[in-house]
Amino acid sequence: MLRQGLQVICTVLLGALVTVPLLQVVMRDLFGAPLIGAEELTRFLLICTVFLAYPLVVAGRENIVMAELREALPDRLRRALHRLIGLAALAGCGLMAWVALGSIIDNPGNATPTLKIPFWLFLGAACAGFGGAALVHLRQALSRRPTPTETGAAADSHSVSL
Amino acid sequence: MGLILILVFLALFVTGFPVVYAILLPAIGYIAIEGLPLGLLAQRVTYALDSFPLVAVPIFIFVGNLMNLSGITDRIFRFADTAVGRVPGGLAQVNIFSSLIFSGMSGAALADVGGLGKIEIEAMKKRGFEAPFSAAVTAASAVVGPIFPPSIPLIVYGSVTSVSIIQLLIAGIVPALICIALLMTTAAVIAIRANMPRAARWPSPREVGASLLPALPALLAPVLMIAGMMAGLFTPTEAAAVTAAYVVVISGAVYRELTWSHLWQAMALTLRSTSAILVIVAAAALFGWILAVEQVPQDFSKLILQISDDPVALLLIANLIFFVAGMFLDSTTATLLVVPVIAPPLVLAGVDPVHLGIVVIFNLMLGLLTPPMGLSLFLVASIARISLRALLKALLPFYLPLLATLAIITFADELVLWLPSLLR
Amino acid sequence: ETLRYAHVGAEGDIQTRFAAEAAEAIEAATDGEVSLQVFPASQLGNVAEMVDGVRMGSIQMGHHDFASLARIVPEMAVFNAPFIYRDGAHALAATDPETSPALQALNAELVENGGMRVIGRIYRGARHISSNFEIDEPADMEGKPFRAVPLDLWISMIKGMGATPTPVEVSELPTALMTGLVVGQENPLTMISANKLYEVQSHVAMTGHMQSVLAVFVNDDAWQGLEEDQREAITAALDEKAAQSLEWAQASEADLVDELTEAGMTFTTAETGLDLESFRTGVLAQIEADFPEYGEYIEQIMAVE
Ligand code: NA
Ligand code: NA
């Protein structure tokens, strides 16, 4: 449910990301009236799309990783390493989300130069993205289900594993 | 401290931490130890993506997904297969040559891989080529993208060093053609040895015409893009968006094969590929900031430059430095961090700055094909759904023509500077 | 004490020379107690990131256009406003942090709202218009796409000149000029030369519409952490370098006109029929309409001797 909702939001952002430069071409070349701040808006959309879609990457286990050595380890060691990586990822994402939140609180008035897009939107996307990723990592850590690489299903997912 | 940071990154990377965390975790540790404001973490990763050229990456990934899902790819390759399928290597040759055509509209290697690469690998797999070989041909030929104009890395290089961007862009044409010729020769040799599939006979003009017609709207896309950019109608990033719109219209209105489900599916795929790649770019920017503060690239270069002041020797050293830099950094970060330090002494020693630009960017593009931080490798392996090991094994023979091109570019400076000299 | 000093200037630009020499001067003036580690060419990030970095304290010092501080104190952009200075010397006098009433008022706000302050400035030359055709009056630019720095002030100014303000990033500028996406732009001659814009532009109209003065700013916590006499020594060193930057810019402008003429550019000046007055009238009217809040500061700036 949550995942579907996030998917819809990100898709809308991606759609806008393609549409805005297109609109700029039409307005500038056909009507001679370039949109002021279109590039700024596009960059804003890119930042939000990348961060908000990040929990989807983690949930799909599509993070880019060189897992060859890890997967060649003895069973117990490998599982311990999996746990360690999961916890480190959880801590890292949690910290990033917390820091992004702190930056929002520190500079609430910060905005982009032309369109005055408030920075808390960018940082909010980073906060939500890393926060969401932390939750997904937490769920993956708690779940008893083996990871795809462990079951050899990696080839079916998007993740790169050796 | 900088060295420790790099070692920790490598340790985490090798033990199977996702790349983004292998970069992020030591950077977080550094910021905590040095007592730098934590807000730097959030600021740096956010601003790293505040880049208009990067916007082209998701759009071209989207175009690739969409063309694949809506059947345009098949039409292009039916035509290409009919036209040059008889040449030894068949679709591998088409793959390489189409990269040259594609590079005329794209300024970034990753956009080539994300857009065209997806089409090529799928088509080659459909035609019975092995996935690793298909992926290797795609990755190797994508190197040409930022060498042939237009080129985002060359524009960045030119603006950092105040070298003429037109001269840089024009200087890239001959090296790109050399590289393509050597890659096609290599593919032909491999294909003949392994007896790879090719068409049974040469096509008749009638057959070529019949396969050309359905593919024509799709083949016209790059032509329109190049003409549009040359005429000043749009920037490379806008060209990406125009291509996306063109593909939607062609597949929806002309081919009538586009459905809402295709569109949704293409978007979902694009979102995850884009995010997986660009969070690494964001994290790498943080890492690069710390390396710059620690003066790591600068100290390293100074050390190397103490060795010689002969232009040829310095160019060889520059090759080494940028090859290594390309292994660890993305091309923009490497250009921004290392070029300002390396370029001035080399230019003083008599190296032509335009020549140096082509050498540097070619090295950084090779870096996309070398572990540990080969973003092109990751993307191609992910698209082809193969392991990195399989990809690297299949890629091995292609390093030969790529390194040969690098050698030619390095030593035959008059070849590189011939076209730009006509404009001086 | 080592302070990180960041800026976006390229090799060969006056601002890059300023930062390098200021670092030496400050180290000498404080007997090595304070040293600057200079990071040129956007090594520590682009303009917005650099300003945020100084505000946050991850970078202690930096310099850029006054308008880059407008994200914290909007009126700071007034020091970039066109046609408000008589010449370079006036621009330096009106941006002296010790004596300029306008800057002192806005600096107090900058400390209050952003935790940073302006402690020096750099003169980088007058900005002129380059184009693919001859320009003598605003009518020549009417309805044509000219590159505008993507900030409100520039958009307003280009409008006031009669052209269509078209946003282009500086890295895309040569390509955009080559392909005709925009037919002209405005910058100091040093930038036109350093970026080889003479390859894609044929004419320069010597409008001198803006005096390019850059603000040298510092994180206020880092500043207050220095000793009183260290701060005085740094301010004095920066002031001396500011005066020198004016000399560099004036000496180089004459050379640059020769150099660019040799590279094939044609210059139009007041002597050859360039109608400066209609540029001044059009631009100032547009600025006044778009930024009524600048009025009192512009008066203060114009009153500076
Ligand atoms: Na290819
Ligand atoms: Na690499």
From TrEMBL, chain A:
Signal sequence extent: none
GO cellular component assignments: plasma membrane
Primary location recorded for the protein, binned into one broad class: membrane
Pfam family, one: DctQ
Similarity-based family: Belongs to the TRAP transporter small permease family.
Subunit field text: The complex comprises the extracytoplasmic solute receptor protein and the two transmembrane proteins.
The name this protein goes by in its record: TRAP transporter small permease protein
TrEMBL record, chain B:
Coiled-coil parts of chain: none
Keywords: Cell inner membrane, Cell membrane, Membrane, Transmembrane, Transmembrane helix, Transport
GO molecular function, one term: transmembrane transporter activity
Pfam families for this protein: DctM (PF06808)
Origin superkingdom: Bacteria
Membrane topology field: Multi-pass membrane protein
Signal peptide bounds: none
Role this protein plays: Part of the tripartite ATP-independent periplasmic (TRAP) transport system.
Protein name (Swiss-Prot/TrEMBL): TRAP transporter large permease protein
Organism field: Limimaricola pyoseonensis
